[in-house]
Amino acid sequence: MPVSNRTSQALIPSLRVALLHPSEFAQYGGDAYVMHWRHSVNRASVEVLTPLVGQKPIRSLGEARRWVRERDWAGVDVVHAELLPGSSSAFHVLMALSELPRRPALSATPHAPGAICWHLFSWRLRLFAWCGLATPAASKGGLAWWPGLTMMLAEKKLAKRLDGLVAHTPSLAETLMRRLNVPAGKIHVIPYGAVTMPTTPLPDDSTLSVLHVSASSDADDLRGLLGVFAKLKKLRPEHVGRLSLTLAGAYAESAQGVDELVRLIGRSGLSGLVKLHPEVSPSEMPALIQRHHCVVVLPPRPRKIGVSGVLVGVVSAFVWALGVGRGGIVSNEAIPAGQLPSGAGVIPQAGGGGEGLYKVLESLLLEPDVVCAWSKAAASAAPIHDWERIGHAFYGHFRRLSERRAAARSGT
Fold this sequence. Notes:
By secondary structure, this protein is an alpha/beta fold. The protein folds into two domains: 15-193 and 386-410, Rossmann fold (3-Layer(aba) Sandwich), CATH 3.40.50; 208-384, Glycogen Phosphorylase B (Rossmann fold, 3-Layer(aba) Sandwich), CATH 3.40.50.2000. Helices cover 42% and strands 15% of the residues. It has 15 helices and twelve strands. It has helices at 31-43, 61-69, 88-98, 123-134, 136-140, 145-161, 170-180, 219-235, 251-254, 258-267, 285-290, 316-323, 355-366, 369-381, 387-410; strands spanning 15-20, 46-49, 78-83, 105-110, 164-167, 187-189, 208-214, 243-249, 274-278, 294-297, 327-331, 346-349. A six-stranded parallel beta sheet has the order 2-1-3-4-5-6, sandwiched between helices. Strand 1, helix 1 (31-43) and strand 2 form a beta-alpha-beta unit. Mean pLDDT is 76; it is low at 4-12, 121-147, 301-314, 341-346 and 348-353.
């Protein structure tokens, strides 16, 4: 059967790319990323096929081999995967495709090196690793290192077979080279894509308007954030009238509904300071961000992977802010320092929320000019992340891989 249903287009694209878009992307706020990514590469003369859409998860290499054999890959130039923690289907399909004698070029963007393979292993092995991390005695006894090492070896095996990889920052490219033994010539640095808009003036500086957007925050995360604002209200009462927090995104579901969240806000003594904006669509996000001074990005519940693991971060809200000329308060647990685009007016804060977030917000109340500096820095960096530019960069990446693969097949 064909890889995907192909829609007719007025202009025949010069490249055909199969995107392995895992269902796990949704829980990391990645649906908007995929939508913009696909639109940008379409405009750069790339037809995008999505063979995994509607496909039940592929849990083993054997399943992937059968799935690959049932599809015709002859008309596909490149297969590209967006690899997230637990992207088992995309991972196994890439491995199965790498075994074909005449295959398309293979490419991937690892969004969390060191955590890609986490769900490829049985729940017993994952529990084994988690217990090893949770108890120092068990870790000393050697319970934690083996699963982490096994996952790293699996990633290295796939990386060796890929024709190319994409890293969003030079620091991430260095991480890939170091962790996966990937040569520099195999990695193409393409920045995060952002929906750019003309920068609008900042809101009235008489109030510090902070926006929190999350695809996965649960009630405990929100309690911590509200606790910081309650502390500011208590210790800096002279600035209470200058504070405003908007909660937007998927908080309602994770906090057991809007009613529960309203009660939580009331118990925190913040009824007059906090606004709710549930169910924000990607098209609404840029304008919503521009109505605020900055965005705060908190980490999701930490996901630790072996002794060599990373804390998986959410970059969507920050990148949206960057594209419309707003700065961000970003926990280095939400976005590790190496993943932060440069020149965006970001203050990484060690340890997530709590004391670090309190100090940053307090400094913004005392020195409002800092927010202006953030906005200028973000506006100057935004063109680098414009989706049209990103689409052409991916076209160049795919074209190079396709030509190299064609030359390898012909023996030239």
